[in-house]
């Protein structure tokens, strides 16, 4: 109750603060900017005070930190550090509700759309002319990544943007792929689907293998049966399961769904109609397969009470044969420690081996996983507060353009190589590791404190191990893999033409409840899927689904957007 | 020796306001100390009440509370047309009433039984052990509960399978989930809830027990005819207060224990709002639900208090 009471009281307290909040975004929105009256790019003669927040910040940047000092000197600004943890929902709630926002900010997740924030009078627009003048690298990035130039525009305007957007090169390609216990496959005499390679020579990577070939769903079923009933761990007990899902996320199922051509929450055309995955006939078939596997005893019955973290622990006990993984998991990168499936082989004494394969192949040859971003590789939003003047915006844009898009600004994330950080392996081909005497993020160094989540390929290298980079090159982000195995929605609104996002946010809670309940009941056999299906679909449609679909239908085709 | 008040009363017996003023002046430090929490109460509990207006508006932070448009009870219409809310309301009432029926009397019985223990050492140890679960959050306790009832590692299922039965996934079973909620809630709050009754028991006049003994009453009779009636006013006050919170069925506990398979019986108003309102920044909708809960709570408190007042001399007001 405390948690709820805290959130509710935060909202109530914040409500009191609104008394003083006023709608005055007209002053800085939609108004024609006199670009000639603003200073030239690079003219920093007037000192400006800016209250800055980055996009993964926890409000822990110390005043006078290394990056702050250098930025203040370079751009002649006085930076006020924002002491708000953008990962903390209560703090973000209060910040949004009170309207007391820093000059620049971004959220972890997207609780409100840019349009909602603008309509609520919390943000200002960013004129295209100013971007062209003060953020040329950013504009170039948008031009190179269609439909970047058309995204995030203010309604009815061709020259005003509601937010800045990030390039997500780090999630280019497949985000997940299935893994199998290779030592079990070997013991059971089951061949890998293709030639297998070791991920690396040491650091537990020598026990992790991959192949770009895949098993079919029929083969997977046979493997699952062997994993469950043929005592793959050789302890003489019937105590293993093929798969142990979790109930709070759907990553465990992405490649299995892909074998049906499905991706969670995306839409596609079925019987000449636009449908979302969760009410499609293919999804029904997918659920029936899982229900069959559950009935056969292949699925760990305890999954209903496991969230993802408990599921990692369960996998580590060595009784589960199948799990999905990201490329960085397979490379056993530092930040993935403790996660499944590589947590099984972390122990030097572990004799377990893991094999990552391409996503399973379905009946119609379908194979793949959902793209991390529905359209292209542009995502996220970096906002400018309503009270920021044009003069301040000019300086903010120049700082933004430099620290996020000029790779000479690497020092804002890692300091100087050899002084603050070192290459993990081969220089320029491995990740950068900040020395222990400096804070890896914020703190005394100020690294990442003012940056936005936008990474071109060079920047991705800075935080990606050479093993992950190799996996991405060899399989996860290979051009043919991306072309054939990335599942994108049929229609999506990235140009703010519809109310799709607003509808999704409004009905998300109820629709998710309906979908989650039906999925779980269907898998454990509590309901007859065929008998209950129509009622479930009707329920979904009548509780906001119809409005969501109607708005989706007004959106552009993704294939057109990506031309 | 006369006090300042008594002297003041004698000096001006007809000026009551003067007496009060003198009394207040004499105790000004106490009044000052009381003023601090009163100011805090006013600032943090009364001023924010203005915010309740957003329950009737389409709230926009930029416009503020007053300038946000009225929405013709839209949030309340949405609430009562949403089958998930209706289900959550029903579940809340069922779980809360079961807790009221089963969990509420438990600390009373426990306190009375504890009072009967003769060994002081054993009494203190029992008391301390019973308090412990109260200090642990449901995040930790839920992990313990899930382990105890696990179909693969849990002790309950170990016993069931030892005697040849099939393991039961208790936490995903609609029939067993509510009893688990009630039992674990009782286990967590039993000792802590008993403190107030134990304190009341210690204030009972020992002469009453002596008189009962002279009349030939044994321990059980004394318990029934002396202890229980003596703590009854406190029981009634606690009951009325608990009734006011009948729409709070245990958010932390349920959020940490439930899963989609038991939503049908375990999804309560708070968990519903958490998923549908607050997570989506719908402050106005969440406030409407909160207002509904509070109105029901106050109505229940007032009604219960009035009924009890009519039947006995006890009550809050």
UniProtKB/TrEMBL annotation, chain A:
Gene3D superfamilies: Periplasmic binding protein-like II. Residues 1-27 form the signal peptide. The keyword Signal applies. Keywords: Signal. It comes from the Bacteria. This is ABC transporter substrate-binding protein. It comes from Peribacillus huizhouensis.
From TrEMBL, chain B:
It is a multi-pass membrane protein. The chain crosses the membrane at residues 30-56, 93-117, 231-251, 285-308. The keyword Magnesium does not apply. Coiled coil: none annotated. Residues 89-304 form the ABC transmembrane type-1 domain. Pfam families: BPD_transp_1 (PF00528). The keyword RNA-binding does not apply. It is found in: Cell membrane. Keywords: Cell membrane, Membrane, Transmembrane, Transmembrane helix, Transport. Belongs to the binding-protein-dependent transport system permease family. This is Aldouronate transport system permease protein. It comes from Peribacillus huizhouensis.
């Amino acid at each position: 109750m405390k948690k709820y009471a805290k959130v509710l009281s935060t909202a109530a307290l914040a409500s009191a603060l609104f008394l003083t909040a006023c709608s005055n975004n007209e002053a800085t929105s939609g108004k024609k900017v006199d670009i000639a009256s603003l200073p030239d790019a690079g003219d920093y003669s007037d000192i400006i005070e800016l209250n800055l927040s980055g996009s993964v910040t926890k409000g822990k940047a110390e005043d006078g930190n290394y990056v702050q000092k250098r930025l203040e000197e370079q751009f002649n600004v006085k930076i006020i550090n924002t002491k708000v943890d953008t990962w903390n929902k209560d703090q973000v709630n209060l910040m949004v509700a009170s309207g007391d926002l820093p000059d620049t900010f971004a959220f972890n997740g997207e609780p409100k759309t840019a349009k909602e924030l603008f309509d609520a009078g919390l943000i200002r627009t960013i004129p295209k002319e100013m971007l062209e003048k003060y953020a040329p690298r950013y504009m170039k990035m948008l031009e190179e990544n269609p439909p970047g130039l058309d995204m995030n525009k203010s309604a009815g305007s061709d020259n005003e943007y509601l937010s800045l957007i990030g390039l997500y090169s780090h999630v280019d390609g497949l985000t997940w792929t299935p893994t199998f216990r290779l030592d079990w496959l070997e013991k059971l005499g089951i061949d890998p689907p293709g030639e297998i390679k070791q991920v690396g020579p040491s650091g537990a990577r020598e026990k992790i293998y991959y192949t770009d070939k895949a098993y079919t769903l029929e083969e997977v079923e046979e493997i699952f049966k062997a994993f469950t009933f043929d005592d793959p761990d050789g302890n003489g007990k019937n105590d293993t399961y093929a798969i142990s899902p979790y109930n709070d996320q759907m990553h465990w199922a992405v490649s299995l769904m892909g074998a049906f051509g499905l991706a969670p929450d995306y839409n596609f055309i079925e019987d000449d109609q636009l449908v979302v995955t969760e009410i499609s006939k293919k999804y029904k078939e997918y659920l029936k397969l899982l229900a069959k596997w559950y009935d056969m005893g292949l699925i760990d019955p305890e999954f209903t009470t496991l969230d993802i973290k408990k599921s990692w622990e369960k996998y580590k006990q060595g009784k589960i044969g199948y799990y999905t993984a990201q490329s960085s998991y397979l490379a056993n990168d530092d930040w993935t420690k403790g996660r499944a499936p590589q947590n099984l082989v972390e122990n030097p004494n572990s004799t377990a081996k893991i094999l990552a394969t391409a996503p399973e192949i379905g009946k119609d040859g379908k194979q793949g996983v959902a793209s991390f971003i529905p359209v292209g590789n542009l995502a996220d939003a970096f906002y400018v507060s309503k009270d920021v003047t044009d003069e301040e915006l000019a300086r903010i844009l120049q700082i933004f353009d430099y620290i996020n898009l000029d790779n000479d600004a690497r020092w804002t994330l890692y300091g100087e190589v050899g002084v603050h950080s070192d290459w993990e392996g081969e220089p320029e081909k491995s990740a950068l590791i900040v020395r222990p005497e400096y804070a890896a993020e914020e703190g005394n160094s100020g690294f990442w404190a003012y940056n936005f989540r936008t990474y071109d390929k060079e920047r991705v290298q800075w935080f990606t191990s050479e093993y992950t980079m190799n996996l991405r090159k060899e399989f996860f982000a290979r051009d043919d893999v991306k072309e054939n195995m990335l599942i994108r929605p049929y229609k999506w609104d990235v140009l703010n033409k519809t109310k799709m996002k607003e509808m999704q946010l409004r009905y998300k809670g109820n629709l998710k409840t309906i979908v989650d309940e039906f999925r779980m009941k269907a898998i454990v056999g509590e309901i007859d899927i065929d008998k209950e299906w129509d009622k479930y679909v009707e329920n979904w449609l009548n509780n906001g689904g119809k409005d969501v679909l109607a708005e989706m239908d007004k959106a552009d085709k993704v294939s057109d957007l990506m031309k | 020796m006369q006090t300042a008040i008594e002297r003041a009363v004698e000096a001006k017996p007809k000026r009551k306001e003067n007496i009060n003023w003198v009394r207040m002046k004499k105790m000004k430090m106490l009044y000052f100390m009381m003023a601090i929490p009163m100011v805090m109460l006013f600032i943090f509990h009364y001023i924010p009440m203005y915010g309740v207006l957003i329950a009737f508006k389409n709230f926009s932070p930029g416009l503020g509370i007053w300038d946000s448009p009225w929405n013709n009870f839209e949030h309340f219409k949405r609430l009562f047309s949403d089958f998930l809310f209706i289900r959550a309301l029903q579940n809340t009432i069922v779980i809360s009433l079961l807790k009221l029926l089963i969990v509420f009397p438990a600390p009373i019985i426990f306190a009375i039984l504890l009072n009967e223990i003769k060994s002081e050492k054993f009494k203190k140890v029992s008391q301390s052990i019973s308090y412990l679960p109260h200090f642990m959050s449901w995040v930790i306790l839920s992990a313990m509960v899930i382990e105890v009832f696990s179909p693969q590692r849990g002790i309950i299922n170990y016993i069931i399978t030892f005697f040849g039965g099939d393991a039961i996934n208790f936490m995903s079973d609609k029939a067993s989930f509510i009893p688990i909620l009630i039992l674990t809630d009782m286990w967590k709050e039993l000792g802590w809830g008993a403190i107030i009754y134990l304190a009341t028991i210690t204030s009972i006049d020992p002469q009453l027990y002596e008189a009962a003994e002279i009349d030939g009453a044994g321990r059980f009779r004394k318990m029934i005819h002396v202890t229980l009636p003596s703590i009854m006013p406190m029981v009634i006050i606690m009951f009325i207060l608990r009734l006011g919170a009948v729409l709070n069925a245990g958010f932390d506990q349920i959020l940490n224990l439930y899963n989609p398979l038991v939503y049908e019986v375990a999804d309560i108003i708070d968990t519903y709002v958490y998923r549908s309102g607050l997570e989506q920044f719908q402050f106005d909708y969440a406030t409407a639900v909160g207002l509904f809960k509070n109105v029901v709570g106050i109505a229940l408190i007032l009604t219960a208090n009035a009924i009890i007042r009519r039947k006995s001399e006890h009550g809050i007001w």
